[in-house]
Specification:
Elements (H helix, E strand, L loop, with lengths): L16 H7 L5 E7 L10 H5 L5 E6 L6 H13 L4 E3 L11 H8 L1 H9 L9 E4 L6 H9 L6 E2 L10 E6 L2 E6 L11 H16 L3 E6 L6 H11 L5 E6 L23 E2 L8 H11 L13 E6 L6 H9 L17 E7 L2 E7 L12 H16 L2 E7 L6 H12 L3 E7 L10 H12 L8 E3 L11 H12 L5 H14 L4 E2 L2 E2 L2 E8 L4 E6 L7 H15 L7 E6 L7
Parallel strand pairs: 1-2, 1-4, 2-3, 8-9, 9-10, 11-13, 11-14, 14-15, 15-16, 20-21
Antiparallel strand pairs: 5-6, 6-7, 12-13, 17-18, 19-20
């Protein structure tokens, strides 16, 4: 078979030998896939040469379809030649559990080097190679269904199974499950779900329509397909429950009648076919270079539990009734953008639905509201965490703030309805001290006491937003950082253990939003949290950094390089 027709990666139909050469430097080992029924005939002789210098594990797929007696002979042959091999079957699960131990054996030296460098948690990277139809995508999906999932769970959101971050072919994107669409229903909740789905369609770059091969093309499928076609967005047609390996069922071809192009047979239960489907999604996504660039406006997400006055605050800031305000909790269903321009600059205010505890999110429609609130945080530069002064701190306030903190967002705690609080000379001071105790995990966050109803202190908000945004984006030169480091280590010696003292060689800042500092040390285990906090305080004292989290990444230098 000509080399230019070889498929190297799961579902990547156009990949060639050049891609192996380009990507080999980034992998730790190679999975060479062969068909257990025809090991010699399914082997590409060029793979050995192309992957030379990397550990190679030979995996023979579809073992349940092979003759057991012949399989035994092949096992002996491979092992006599010194090749590590595993016979497996994705359908039955046979042999899958043997892959991880074999990888650890083949990469034992590399894993030891990682441990010595303080990189204990670093994951090994494998390349899957083989001729067409040998089962690369099937194995890939079987593996990610075990412990190597490409879906990253986002705290507080994906537990409702409607929002997830996915990575495919080095491209990260967001997946949103809209739930079922009932085109003609009069049920209130189902109608709201349909409306939410339409909103999701408007915001999506690519749409995946999931159908059921067992049901065939239904009237609802046709109606939904027509609705989606009107959006003008790329549509990927996935036909689910094609659970058998091999040729797709004849019923698949009925789905061409929907007019959405080639249907992709997939099995949600077993993972079959999802590689090819994700390839189609990848190809349909807009190029990253062509994505709309953000303007210079500071994007501000106004978050908090329901009925704390978020919409009222937006209206007060905007100076007009731009958002519907109601005392009924849950009035705001969608994230709404309001642009405000003043002497401090340009701001985009994102009002969101209140974020409730999971136990309180009972209606499907409200789940989507929560989703949109978290998505608003994701695309914001600054988060205003709004608290009701008449209620004080609640556990849910810390969860809302926790999500903003986890995402590395600049934040301000806004205590609203301050006009309704009876005060004496120390009311605000005592209230702030109590809140700081509750927000100990965000010791950097500033507080602002205001009233959206009367306008009290609202004018101070824009200056604070601008300030925390600048500090979230601050970049410190390596020279300045190491001057601070030298002063800090002279003032307080690094910790030691059993006669071995921590050495901090240097520090640098690779990224902002939030400010992230990489610290190179002799032993990562000696860099205690308390000393890390001490260095953080020294950096904050030098540059302020109020309102922004600070992240440290500890790197242990190769001990062979240590003097």
């Amino acid at each position: 078979m000509p080399s230019e027709r070889i498929q190297w990666f799961p579902g990547h139909m156009a990949k060639t030998r050049r891609m192996i050469a380009e990507n080999l430097k980034d992998v730790d080992l190679v999975f060479e896939l062969l068909d257990a029924r025809i090991p010699k005939s399914s082997e590409n002789p060029e793979i050995a040469g192309l992957t030379a210098g990397r550990p190679r594990l030979t995996l023979l797929s579809k073992s349940s379809l092979a003759d057991p007696a012949v399989t035994g002979a092949w096992k002996r042959s491979f092992r006599e030649s010194g090749r590590e091999c595993i016979f497996y079957d994705c359908r039955t699960g046979e042999g899958i559990s043997e892959i991880a131990p074999a990888v650890r054996r083949l990469c034992a030296d590399k894993l030891q080097k990682y441990r010595e460098r303080g990189m204990e948690g670093r994951r090994l990277r494998a390349m899957i190679v083989g001729i067409p139809n040998v089962g690369k995508s099937t194995l890939f999906n079987k593996l990610i269904g075990k412990r190597l999932s490409i879906v990253e769970n986002t705290p507080g959101v994906t537990r409702d199974r409607i929002y997830a971050k996915c990575e495919w072919r080095d491209r990260a994107f967001m997946i949103v499950d809209t739930g079922g669409i009932e085109p003609t229903t009069e049920d209130v909740i189902l109608k709201q779900m349909r409306e939410q789905a339409q909103l999701a369609i408007e915001q999506a770059d690519v749409i995946i329509l999931v159908t059921d091969v067992r049901c065939g093309v239904t009237a609802d499928d046709s109606a939904v397909a027509n609705m989606l076609q009107k959006s003008g967005k790329p549509i990927i047609l996935a036909v689910n429950k094609c659970d058998k390996i091999g040729e797709p069922p004849m019923e698949l071809y009925e789905f061409y009648n929907l007019g959405l192009g080639d249907p992709f047979p997939v099995s949600a239960e077993h993972g079959h076919g999802s590689g090819d489907m994700l390839d189609a999604v990848y190809d349909a996504l807009p190029p990253e270079s062509e994505l709309e660039e953000q303007d210079d406006a500071i994007r501000v997400a106004i978050i908090g539990k329901p009925n704390v006055g978020k919409s009222s605050l937006v209206n007060r800031i905007a100076g007009e009734q731009r958002v519907i305000v109601s005392n009924v909790a849950g009035t705001t269903r969608d994230a709404t953008d309001t642009t405000v321009e003043n002497e401090e600059g340009k701001f985009v205010l994102i009002d969101t639905a209140g974020i409730r505890r999971k136990s309180k999110v009972t209606e499907k429609i409200e789940q989507y509201s929560v989703l949109r609130a978290y998505m608003a945080v994701d695309r914001a530069d600054v988060c205003l965490i709004v608290i009701d002064a008449t209620e004080g701190f609640t556990e849910q306030d810390s969860k809302v703030a926790g999500y903003a903190h986890e995402q590395g967002k600049a934040s301000i705690v806004v205590v609203n309805k301050w006009d309704l609080v009876e005060k004496d000379g120390k009311t605000m001071q005592n209230f702030e001290e109590e809140l700081r105790g509750h927000f100990s995990f965000m010791s950097y966050v500033p507080f602002l006491f205001l009233s959206a109803k009367t306008g009290q202190r609202v004018s101070k908000l824009f200056g604070m937003i601008k300030d925390v945004h600048q500090q979230n984006s601050i970049r410190v030169t390596t020279g300045t950082l190491n001057d601070i480091l030298a002063y800090a280590t002279t003032r307080v010696q690094p910790p030691s253990d059993k006669g071995r003292r921590l050495k901090i060689y240097y520090m640098t800042q690779p990224s902002t939003n939030p400010p992230t500092f990489v610290v190179f040390v002799n032993r990562a285990d000696l860099f205690h949290f308390s000393y890390q906090r001490y260095l953080e305080n020294q950096i904050r004292a030098s540059f302020g950094l109020t309102g922004t989290p600070v992240r440290f990444v500890v790197r242990e230098r190769n001990r062979d390089d240590q003097s």
